[in-house]
Amino acid sequence: MSRRNIGQAGKILSDSGYQGIMKMYSQAQTPRKSSKLKPLTL
């Protein structure tokens, strides 16, 4: 992942391949796994 100055961007949405992004940016969100009973959510 390239390091860019995205601190002022607010929330960051990324795919589940970036597992360590939460450590670098506290505003980052990755999708959660879905199941038969619950749909995919953020």
From TrEMBL:
This is Uncharacterized protein. The lineage of its organism: Bacteria, Bacillati, Bacillota, Bacilli, Lactobacillales. It comes from the Bacteria.
